[in-house]
Each structure stands twice: as C-alpha cells, then as structure tokens.
C-alpha cells in the first residue's frame, strides 16, 4: 500500500489527465468520477515500483482505460438508461471539435485523446493500449478522416492540432 503523501502527490499531478480520459471514454461525469476513484484505488493497492513520473502516468492511464472497459462490461452499465450530458470544455471552439471526437468509435476516441490531449506518441499509445504502433497510426488516420467528414471539412490537420494541443507547461 502507498503512503498518503504519495497518493496526494499522484492525484495532484495526474488527477486531471485520468479524469479527462475517463470522461472522454464514458461520456458521463458520474461514471468518469467512479473510474477516477477506481484508478487511484488500484494505484493505492498496487505494489508496482515506477521508474519515473511518465511511467506512473502511463500506468494510471492504462488502468483508467481498463476500468472504463470494466464499467462498460458490467451488468449495471447494460441495464441503465443513457443520460445526455454535455462534456465541459474550455472554449466554444474546442467544444465543437470534442463533440465530434465524442461521436467517434471508442478505439478512435482513445487514440485521439492520448495523442492530442496527453501528448503521447503513437508508440507510447500502443504500449498503453496494448496495440501495435502501426495499428495506432492507422486508427489515428481513420479518426482524422472521420473527424474531417463530421466537421464538414472546416478543420484541416493543422487546425485540429492547434485546437487540441497537449496541456504541457
């Protein structure tokens, strides 16, 4: 089990990316909060020694995706009515783009979020999702094409990258 200080630090540093990924994946705030708690509970109970912060972040994002999959497979998830809920975004311009991302199939949403929002390379995304790098690149290409058709050609590749740059500061 982890120390309280370790957990507080992990939540402070990686809570936002974990929650954002869960929100993009589940498209529901309540479910995203449940996945967030599950991811950090698994971290608390896990004994993995992390090489650095990037290793910890990648581990947390992988656990988040697995928890989302567990949630979708659960009997509870299959027997409830879907709520229509807007996902909060920083600007009006970004909301249109991320609304289009939300309409993508799950496998494309994951790679788009991890690439543009979290700043991972195709190889790193492949490691997180357990997919081949070539598969990730193909999914990125297909996701971009779907986004382009969904947005009516209003966004070109540079525009998409401009609006969803990773939050690295």
UniProtKB/TrEMBL annotation:
The record's keywords, sorted A to Z, are:
Sigma factor, Transcription, Transcription regulation
According to the entry, every stretch annotated as the RNA polymerase sigma factor 70 region 4 type domain falls at 97-147
Entry keyword annotation includes Glycoprotein: no
Matches recorded under InterPro entries: RNA_pol_sigma-70-like (IPR039425), RNA_pol_sigma-70_dom (IPR014284), RNA_pol_sigma70_r2 (IPR007627), RNA_pol_sigma70_r4_t2 (IPR013249), RNA_pol_sigma_r2 (IPR013325), RNA_pol_sigma_r3/r4-like (IPR013324), WH-like_DNA-bd_sf (IPR036388)
Q: Which Gene3D superfamilies match?
A: 1.10.1740.10, Winged helix-like DNA-binding domain superfamily/Winged helix DNA-binding domain (1.10.10.10)
RNA polymerase sigma-70 region domain mapped to chain residues = 11-77
Identify the domain of life: Bacteria
Q: Which GO terms describe its molecular function?
A: DNA binding; sigma factor activity
For the biological process aspect of GO, one term held by this record is: DNA-templated transcription initiation
Q: Which NCBIfam families does the entry mention? A: sigma70-ECF (TIGR02937)
Question: What family is reported?
Answer: Belongs to the sigma-70 factor family. ECF subfamily.
- What protein name does the entry list? Sigma-70 family RNA polymerase sigma factor
* Species this chain originates from: Caproicibacterium amylolyticum
């Amino acid at each position: 089990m982890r120390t309280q200080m370790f957990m507080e630090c992990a939540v402070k540093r990686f809570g936002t990316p974990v929650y954002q990924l869960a929100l993009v994946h589940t498209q529901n705030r309540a479910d995203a909060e449940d996945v967030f708690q599950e991811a950090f509970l698994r971290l608390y109970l896990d004994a993995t020694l992390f090489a650095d912060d990037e290793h910890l972040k990648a581990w947390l994002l992988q656990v988040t995706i697995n928890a989302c999959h567990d949630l979708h497979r659960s009997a509870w998830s299959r027997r409830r009515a879907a709520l229509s809920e807007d996902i909060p975004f920083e600007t009006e311009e970004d909301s249109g783009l991320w609304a289009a991302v939300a309409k993508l199939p799950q496998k494309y949403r994951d790679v788009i979020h991890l690439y543009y929002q979290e700043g991972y390379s195709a190889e790193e995304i492949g490691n997180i999702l357990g997919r081949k790098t070539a598969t990730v690149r193909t999914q990125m290409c297909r996701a971009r094409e779907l986004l382009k058709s969904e947005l009516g050609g209003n966004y070109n590749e540079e525009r998409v990258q401009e609006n969803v740059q990773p939050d690295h500061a």
